[in-house]
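User: Hey, quick favor. My workstation is busy. Could you predict this chain's structure for me?
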Amino acid sequence: MPADSSANKPVNYEAGKAMRTRTLGQAYVSKAVADPNDFAAPLQDIVTSHAWGTVWTREGLEPKLRSIATVSMLMALNRPNELKLHMRGALNNGVTPEQLRELIIHASVYCGFPAAMDSMRQAKALLEELAAEKAE
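Assistant: No problem, here it is.
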């Protein structure tokens, strides 16, 4: 992959880091990319430059709709860790808690009730975490 010579990072890395930070939050992104010697660092660079810098920054879908699509796909794929993270991102991108609940209920028809129940647990835990963060 071509590198950005100024930072020795892949093309679109900085745009991706900005979009990723906007969606997932500064704390998460800083931790994810903090150690360039980390075993997972090359994958973080690829995710940041390709998924976030090339795909998430495209015109055609606003970040809120991208978040709704991402949450839906992660529910169907049964990826609870990424799901909870992207639920936080969806809220950051303008999805309301009520819309998130309706999205999960809607997904129950297509993804099944076990996936919907697990997703609802993730959403409930996230909303409790966010309330606790606000209380601090």
